[in-house]
Amino acid sequence: MKGNSSALRKGRFSEAGQIYLVTFVTLQRKPVFKDFELGRLFVDVLRRESEHSETLAFVVMPDHVHWLVQLKSKLLSRTVQSVKSVSSRKIKSQIISNGPVWQDGFHDHAVRNGDDLASIARYLVMNPVRAGLVSSVKEYPLWDAVWV
């Protein structure tokens, strides 16, 4: 589906101050982040590359990431691309690979003003429990939320 990711964004715009729930997936849903060290590496990138955004919550699943983020200035597509690009370089250096880490594109949902952000964050970080990876979110190390 290469090339369709820009078509999906056609006619969409992002704005400073807006909160988005963003999901992006590893190439062919390869469980890259089953490796805890690679998961922590990604979390570090997410925190460092967020100078144009504020991370409200995230969960790193074995083959995808959910990220609740508020833009400060940069376009959403550039923000996501920056995180994916930097994390890809760092992950490939750890696993000694030249192939892509991430699938093209991402899915986003603009959060409306009346939406309960804490509830969205709770739902997001409960993904590992719903997926059967752990019985309690306390057992899962690759998530965070500003409300904790």
Automatic annotation (TrEMBL):
It comes from the Bacteria. One of its GO terms (biological process) is DNA transposition. Pfam families: Y1_Tnp. One of its GO terms (molecular function) is transposase activity. InterPro entries: RAYT_transposase, Transposase_17, Transposase_17_sf. Residues 15-127 form the Transposase IS200-like domain. This is REP element-mobilizing transposase RayT. It comes from Amphritea atlantica. The lineage of its organism: Bacteria, Pseudomonadati, Pseudomonadota, Gammaproteobacteria, Oceanospirillales.
